[in-house]
Backbone:
C-alpha cells in the first residue's frame, strides 16, 4: 500500500470550508443540518475547518456565491459541500470553487441526501451518519491535490462500423458537415436489415423506396469512403487517435474496372440458395450482388461455391465481362486508417425460431419466420410479392401470427424486442390486403407505443383481423378433428375468454425477436466497450447518455445498443454524429484527470500490473525494466494501483491517501487532534 | 434507540453501478439500515485489500464491497479482479482470527436500488449477529503464529484454491 499522506505540517496549513445544504426540507427534514454544521466547525477545527455554514439551497446562485466569497475572503484552500450526490452537482460546486480561484478538484461533495436523509427515518441516527459522512469528506479533501484536465488532439476522420440505416445516417450527417467518414460493412452491400423489408410500419412506406436514396447518397458522397465486404480486425489508440486495421476481403472483381452491368451474374452457371438476403427462400449466383439496388453495385464472388475455385474450370464470368474486371488472383487486403471517433452500428441477429421447438419452425414447412415473410411479401422477393405457402403456389386462406417468439420468455430472452408487435400488425395488414385470408394475431400484451402506432393497431382491428390474447403453447400438424386435417393447429390458452383453443390455419408466421449479434462480445472487446447481461452494448448512461459508451470516442447506435425501430435507429445515428462533430470541432478533447501514474523510481519492474489493464494502457519498458502508463489510454479504474506491491502506482483523484483518509474520517478516527 | 448493538460498516462502491444504485435507492426513498457509510471509487478493481483491513482496524465492524455484476464491468473485467482479491482476503481474515463473514461482496447494477437497499439491511443484521469486532481477543493468546500456521496446514489443498 502506498500511504503517501501529506505531512501533518502541510495539512495544518489547509483552510477548509464546510457547507451543509438543507435542500429545502429534502435534507433538513431528516438531518439536523444546523447541528451538523456546528459540529463540523467545532470538532473538525483541528483538521483545518475554518468555516462551516448551512444554507437552504447550496446549488442556487446565492449558495455558490457564498463559496466563492469565502474562498476569496477567508482564504479557503479546500471546500466540502454536504448536499446531494456528486453525480448531480459535483460539477456545479467544482465550477463554483474554480470561480473563487481554487483548483476545481480541491472541492469534494458529501452525499447526505441520497445516502442519508432520503433513506433513513430516525432524525438522530441520520444526523450522526451525516456528521460521519462530512468528517470523511473533510479528511479526504485535505489529501486532494490540484489536477488539470488532460487535452489530446482529435483526428477529424470518423469510422462507422455497420452500413444499416443507423450507420448510414450517422455517416451522412458527418460527411455532410464536411468531415471524412470510413463506412465499413461486412456484407457486399450497405442497407442492412432494412433493405430486406417490404413495408415499414406504421406508414406502410415501401422500405426500399425510402432507403435506397440514402444508400446511393452514402455510396457517392465525396466525404465517405465505403468499404464493403470488409471487417475491422484490430483497434488500438484512444479518443481522437484511434488506429484501425480493416480487412478488405477479396471480391475477385476489380472495383476500378467493374461497371456493375451484371453480365457476370447472368452468365454464371452456379445457383446457390441465398441464406442471407433472401432468408433461404431464393437463389443467387456464385458471383452476385445481393439485390438489384445494392451499393456499391460491384458483385462479389463466393469462393466456396464458385465452380472455378472448386474444379479449376469455368471462368464464364471472366469470358463475358466486357471490361475485364474479373480477377481470380485477388487477395484479401489489410488497410490501416487513423480516426478520431468510432460509431458502432453493428445491428442485430434475428432470434433463431428453431430454438422454440414447439412452434415447429424448420420441421413444419408452412411455419415462416418474420424475415422469410418479409421476403415473401416483397415485390422484389422470390415470389414477386405473392404470399404463398412453402409449395410456392397455394395462397393461404387462414394465417396465424405468433408474437413474442423468443422475447419476454424466461427460457430465451427476458427483454421485449420492441418491434415485434408492430411487425406482427404489419404482417396482418399485408396478408389481409393481398390474400383476403382470415388472420389471427396471438399476443401476450399489445405494445404500440410511439407516434401513430396505436392508430395503426386500430386500423388493423377494424380491418377484421382477429386477436387472441395468450402465449401459444404449440403449433402442430397432428389433427384431432376433420376440420383440422392438412392444417397447422395452433394450441393456445385464450386468457381473455379463459379457455383452451385449437385454431387450424394454413400458414404460421413467427414474429421473432431481436438478439445481439453472435459476435457482439468479441466486437465489444476489440473496441473496448462492454455488453449488458443480455449481450447488447452498454451505453454510458441509460437515460442521459444513450449513444456514448464508457470508452471515450466510441459511440453505439441502432440495435447494437438494444432492440429498436427504424425512427429510433435513425435518431441515434444522427445523435451520435452530433457528438462526434462536437468533438471534431473542439479540435482537442479534455479527459478527466483520473489516471494512474507510475513512480518509476519506486517501480521494481515486477510486471504484476502489466496484465491488469484491459485497455492496454500499461507498457513495460524493456530497456529500463520499469512500467509506464499511457495517460491517454488509461481509463482510471485503478485496478493496477491496487495491484502494485511496491506502491509505485498512484491513482489521481482516488489515491490511497484520499481513500484511507476518508475511511478514518467516516469512522470518526480524525476527531482526536493529531499530534504533530 | 434500543440497547442493541449498532455495527459500523464501511461500504466500498463502484462509481458506475453500486454508487448509482445507492443514488437510486435514495431517489426512490427506499429505507435501509443507517449503519453503512459509503466510499466511492471508480471501480471495485480499485479496492486495495488493505483498505478493508484499514477499515476493520480503525473501528469498522464489517466491510461491504460492491461492484458491477460479472460481465457488466464498466472497465470490461476489473470486477473479476475484485472478486479474486475478495476471495483471497477472506482467507487472510480467517488466518487473522476475524470472521470472514465480516466482509461481503455484493453485485448491484445502477438499476438495482432495491437490491442495494435490501443487501445493506441484510448485511447489517448479519454483522449485528456477529457482534462487535473484538481485536482484543487476538491479544489474549487465542491467535498465535502456531495457530495460524496449523490452520493453514490442516486444511485440504482444495480449499486453498482460488476459483478462476
Residues:
Amino acid at each position: 500500500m502506498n500511504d503517501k499522506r501529506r505531512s501533518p505540517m502541510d495539512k495544518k496549513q489547509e483552510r477548509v470550508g464546510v457547507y451543509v445544504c438543507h435542500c429545502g426540507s429534502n435534507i433538513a427534514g431528516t438531518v439536523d443540518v444546523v447541528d451538523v454544521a456546528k459540529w463540523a466547525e467545532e470538532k473538525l477545527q483541528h483538521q483545518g475547518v475554518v468555516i462551516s455554514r448551512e444554507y437552504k439551497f447550496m446549488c442556487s446562485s446565492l449558495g455558490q456565491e457564498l463559496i466563492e466569497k469565502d474562498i476569496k475572503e477567508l482564504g479557503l484552500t479546500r471546500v466540502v459541500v454536504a448536499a446531494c450526490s456528486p453525480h448531480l452537482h459535483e460539477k456545479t460546486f467544482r465550477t463554483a470553487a474554480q470561480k473563487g480561484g481554487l483548483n476545481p478538484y480541491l472541492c469534494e461533495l458529501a452525499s447526505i441526501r441520497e445516502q442519508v436523509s432520503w433513506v433513513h427515518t430516525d432524525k438522530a441516527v441520520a444526523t450522526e451518519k451525516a456528521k460521519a459522512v462530512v468528517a470523511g469528506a473533510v479528511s479526504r479533501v485535505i489529501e486532494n491535490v490540484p489536477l488539470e484536465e488532460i487535452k489530446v488532439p482529435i483526428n477529424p476522420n470518423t469510422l462507422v462500423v455497420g452500413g444499416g440505416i443507423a450507420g448510414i445516417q450517422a455517416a451522412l450527417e458527418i460527411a455532410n458537415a464536411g468531415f471524412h467518414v470510413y463506412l465499413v460493412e461486412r456484407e457486399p452491400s450497405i442497407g442492412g436489415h432494412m433493405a430486406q423489408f417490404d413495408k415499414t410500419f406504421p406508414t406502410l412506406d415501401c422500405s426500399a423506396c425510402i432507403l435506397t436514396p440514402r444508400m446511393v447518397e452514402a455510396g457517392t458522397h465525396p466525404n465517405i469512403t465505403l468499404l464493403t465486404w470488409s471487417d475491422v480486425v484490430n483497434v488500438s489508440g484512444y479518443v481522437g487517435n484511434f488506429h484501425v486495421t480493416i480487412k478488405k476481403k477479396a471480391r475477385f472483381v476489380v472495383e476500378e474496372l467493374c461497371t456493375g452491368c451484371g453480365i457476370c451474374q447472368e452468365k454464371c452457371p452456379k445457383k446457390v440458395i441465398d441464406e442471407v438476403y433472401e432468408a433461404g427462400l431464393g437463389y443467387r449466383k456464385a458471383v452476385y450482388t445481393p439485390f438489384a439496388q445494392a451499393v456499391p453495385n460491384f458483385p462479389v464472388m463466393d469462393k466456396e461455391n464458385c465452380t472455378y475455385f472448386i474444379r479449376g474450370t469455368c471462368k464464364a464470368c471472366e469470358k463475358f465481362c466486357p471490361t475485364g474486371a474479373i480477377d481470380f488472383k485477388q487477395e484479401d487486403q489489410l488497410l490501416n486508417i487513423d480516426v478520431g471517433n468510432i460509431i458502432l452500428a453493428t445491428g442485430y441477429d434475428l432470434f433463431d425460431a428453431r430454438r422454440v421447438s414447439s412452434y415447429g419452425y424448420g420441421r413444419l414447412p408452412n411455419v415462416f419466420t418474420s424475415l422469410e415473410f418479409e421476403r415473401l411479401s416483397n415485390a422484389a422477393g422470390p415470389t414477386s410479392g405473392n404470399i404463398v405457402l412453402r409449395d410456392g403456389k397455394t395462397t393461404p386462406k387462414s394465417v396465424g401470427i405468433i408474437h413474442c417468439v423468443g422475447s419476454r420468455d424466461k427460457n430465451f430472452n427476458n427483454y421485449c424486442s420492441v418491434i415485434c408487435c408492430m411487425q406482427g400488425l404489419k404482417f396482418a395488414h399485408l396478408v389481409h390486403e393481398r390474400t383476403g385470408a382470415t388472420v389471427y394475431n396471438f399476443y401476450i400484451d399489445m405494445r404500440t407505443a410511439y407516434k401513430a402506432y396505436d392508430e395503426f393497431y386500430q386500423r388493423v382491428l377494424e380491418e377484421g383481423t382477429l386477436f387472441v390474447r395468450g402465449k401459444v403453447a404449440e403449433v402442430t400438424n397432428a389433427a384431432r378433428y376433420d376440420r383440422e386435417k392438412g392444417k397447422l393447429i395452433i394450441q393456445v390458452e385464450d386468457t381473455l375468454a379463459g379457455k383452451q383453443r385449437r385454431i387450424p390455419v394454413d400458414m404460421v408466421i413467427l414474429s421473432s425477436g431481436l438478439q445481439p449479434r453472435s459476435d457482439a462480445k468479441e466486437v465489444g472487446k476489440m473496441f473496448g466497450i462492454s455488453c449488458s447481461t443480455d449481450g447488447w452494448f452498454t451505453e454510458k448512461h441509460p437515460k442521459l447518455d444513450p449513444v456514448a459508451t464508457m470508452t471515450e470516442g466510441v459511440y453505439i447506435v441502432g440495435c447494437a445498443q438494444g432492440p429498436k425501430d427504424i425512427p429510433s435507429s435513425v435518431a441515434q445515428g444522427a445523435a451520435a454524429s452530433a457528438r462526434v462533430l462536437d468533438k471534431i470541432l473542439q479540435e482537442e478533447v479534455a479527459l478527466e484527470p483520473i489516471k494512474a501514474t507510475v513512480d518509476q523510481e519506486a517501480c521494481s519492474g515486477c510486471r504484476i500490473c502489466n496484465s491488469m489493464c484491459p485497455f492496454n494502457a500499461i507498457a513495460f519498458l524493456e530497456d529500463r525494466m520499469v512500467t509506464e502508463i499511457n495517460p491517454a489510454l488509461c481509463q482510471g479504474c485503478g485496478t493496477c494501483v491496487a495491484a502494485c506491491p511496491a506502491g509505485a502506482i498512484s491513482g489521481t483523484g482516488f489515491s490511497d491517501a484520499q481513500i484511507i483518509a476518508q475511511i478514518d474520517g467516516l469512522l470518526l478516527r480524525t476527531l482526536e487532534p493529531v499530534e504533530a | 434507540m434500543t440497547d442493541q448493538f449498532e455495527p459500523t460498516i464501511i461500504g466500498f462502491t463502484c462509481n458506475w453501478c453500486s454508487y448509482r444504485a445507492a443514488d437510486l435507492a435514495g431517489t426512490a426513498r427506499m429505507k435501509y439500515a443507517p449503519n453503512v457509510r459509503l466510499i466511492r471509487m471508480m471501480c471495485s478493481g480499485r479496492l486495495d485489500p488493505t483498505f478493508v483491513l484499514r477499515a476493520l482496524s480503525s473501528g469498522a465492524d464489517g466491510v461491504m464491497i460492491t461492484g458491477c455484476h460479472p460481465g457488466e464491468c464498466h472497465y470490461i473485467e476489473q470486477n473479476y479482479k475484485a472478486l479474486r482479491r475478495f476471495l483471497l482476503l477472506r482467507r487472510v481474515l480467517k488466518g487473522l482470527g476475524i470472521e470472514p463473514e465480516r466482509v461481503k461482496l455484493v453485485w448491484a447494477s445502477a438499476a438495482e436500488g432495491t437490491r442495494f437497499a435490501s443487501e445493506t439491511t441484510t448485511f447489517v443484521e448479519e454483522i449485528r449477529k456477529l457482534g462487535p469486532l473484538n481485536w482484543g481477543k487476538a491479544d489474549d493468546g487465542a491467535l498465535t503464529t502456531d495457530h495460524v500456521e496449523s490452520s493453514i496446514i490442516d486444511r485440504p489443498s482444495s480449499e486453498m484454491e482460488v476459483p478462476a
Notes: The CA atoms of residues 90 and 100 of chain B lie 5 Å apart. Chain B has one domain: 9-160. Strands of chain B lie at 9-14, 36-41, 62-67, 103-107.
